[in-house]
Structures are given as structure tokens and as C-alpha cells.
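does this look right to u?? protoporphyrin IX containing FE version
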Amino acid sequence: MNPFMNKVVMLNGFFKVYGVYSKAEIALHDKRTDCWIIVKNRIFDVTSYVEEHPGGDAILTNAGSDSTEGFYGPQHPGGAFQLIEDYCIGELEK
Ligand code: HEM
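got this back:
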């Protein structure tokens, strides 16, 4: 990935690196210990949340790939939508 596509942004009160990532790069992060997911073309590094997830390993179903359908399932009545924002690290390359 071109590092110059990254920029530092303020997100929920924290500074973080916000990047533009290709599907190929996201696919490298497909494990419990390194888990990125795509939800509506945005990228979330949920590695630190995997062990906390109330739905257990369901969060890993599409690790490293598009998890939009799973995330928008009926098991997430609302709280999850705010929570996921803490893990946003960027967006999918257009
Ligand atoms: C990516 C695909 C995901 C799948 C397939 C999935 C699946 C599930 C399932 C099956 C449950 C139900 C647990 C139960 O009540 O027995 C659940 C609950 C929950 N999940 Fe996920 N999950 C995903 C991602 C996430 C993410 C990324 C977050 C937040 C960062 C999250 C937050 C929660 C929360 C907070 C609950 C408890 C119910 C609620 O209050 O909304 N999940 N999930």
C-alpha cells in the first residue's frame, strides 16, 4: 500500500492513522490475532475486540473480508453500531 495515502485523523477523541486499503491487503488480516473486517466499504481493525465479542467467534466468519451482512444481522439491535466506530482504521480503495 502507498503509505502516503494514510493520514492522521481525530476519531472519537483519539488520533489514529486513517488509511485507504485494497481488498488484497485487508485479506492479510484474517485471524483472531489480527482481524480486519469491511463494513459498508469502511475498514475496522477489531483484533482487540474479538475476545470480548458477545457473539463469540461469529465475528471471525468473514475476517479479512466483507462482514457487512453479518454485522447488519438481527443480533445487533443497536449498541454495536456505536461501538464499531472505535475500531475504524480507514476505507476501502475505490
Ligand atoms: C462481523 C461480523 C459479526 C457477526 C457475524 C456477529 C455476530 C454476532 C452474534 C451471533 C451475536 C449474538 C450473541 C448472542 O446473543 O448470543 C452478536 C452480538 C453482539 N455483537 Fe456481533 N457480530 C459481528 C461483528 C461485531 C462487531 C464488529 C461488533 C462491534 C465492534 C459487534 C458487537 C456485538 C455486540 C455489542 C453484541 C451484543 C448484542 C448487542 O448489544 O448488539 N459484533 N454478534
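The chain has one domain: 3-92. idk if thats expected tbh
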